[in-house]
Amino acid sequence: MASFASAPGHVPPPDAVAPRESRSDAPTSVSRLNETIRGFVSTWGSVWVEGEITAWNLRGGHVFGRLKDANGDAMLSFRLWSSTLQRLPDDLKVGDLVVACVKSDFFVKTGDFTFTVSAMRHTGLGDQLERLEKLRGQLRAEGLFDPARKKRLPFLPQLVGLITGERSDAEKDVHRNAELRWPGVRFRTIHAAVQGERCVPETIAALTALDADPEVDVIIIARGGGDPQTLLGFSDERLVRAVAAASTPVVSAIGHENDHPLLDDVADVRASTPTDAAKRVVPDVAEQRALVNQLRSRARTRLTQRVGHDIAQLEQLRSRPVLRAPESLLTPRAHELWTLVSRGRDLVNRRMDAAERTTAQLRASLRALSPGATLERGYAIAHLEAGVIVRDARQVPAGTAVTVTVAEGSFTARSEGPLAEDVGGSA
What we know:
- This protein is α/β, with parallel strands linked by helices.
- Helices cover 39% and strands 20% of the residues.
- The chain has 5 domains: 44-124, CATH 2.40.50.140; 129-283, Rossmann fold (3-Layer(aba) Sandwich), CATH 3.40.50.2300; 290-326; 334-368; 373-422, no CATH class.
- Strands 1-2-3-5-4 form a 5-stranded mixed beta barrel. The chain has a 5-stranded parallel β-sheet with strand order 7-6-8-9-10, sandwiched between helices.
- It starts with 29 loop residues before the first helix and ends in a 13-residue tail after the last strand.
């Protein structure tokens, strides 16, 4: 125990007073106190400690982090020099359970107490984490993580379904960032427990309700960060299979970037944070307006270029002589057309004259051979009532009625019989 008694009238310099010998009129200095503490701490040996990594910050090649006890009641800070980091596994991260060899260190200048890590390794997944990894492998083998089965998000959802904790920061983040990007976005929010025994059944019930709503175009399941123990509900097989069976696209926004529950693998889209989920679900109205203006400008430019090109082509065509003076093309053809018409007219007339002569010759030949011409020469044709022409006098015995046709009409006669001298001859 330090003595607080002092010799009257003696005030030694502060640096000359050890902490155990300090008193109100002869205090020790901060540096002397820190040196004393450092000397005491330096006598401690290295210690193997087990805990969960809750912070892992890489600065200048060195790591500054924190370890938390399994029950969460205690925490320590550690530093890990780059030379030591090179010898450690490269997959160490926040949330890992590790055992580390640490040695206490006290900084005289700042008065900070920390531990320097000389070795660190994983302690294993543990029974619970091992079961999760087995389930992850089973679901992957069943194809539930296959990118081909994941549904695409709609470009602009009319109604967004949100499953999150009541009055949670995750809900505020999703609403705020989505409304900043697209002010007209609408939500249907169902609150559910995001940890504990109620987490899985309430989340499944909310998912079922939103998936059955035809107006809901996409569903977000959101929760803030947490340690692996509090996120176990989002690796539950019942919830994972319910998400895989949903017909509505599902976005997983559980925890932070380093958190990785099974829900992330089976969801159609994995968002690193609730804020990231809002950005993925709705487009940015400013970006879309800029895109529309860009497309309008491109369309205006293309249309102007096309019209200008067509006008230039039209002017080029109009400048040609044949279009500038169309009659110049017709005038040389006029005489040629008149010549062709005259030749055609002469050819038609000659052919008509030849046809008329041929017709007259045929008419004369036909008239010469016609029975009418014979009748005009005084001949007659006799035929019976049945129309049989009389060629033999014996065809008309006495009393037979005969029709006689002459050049100018016909008349009826009655036969008195063939003449005696003509019997057996021609009539």
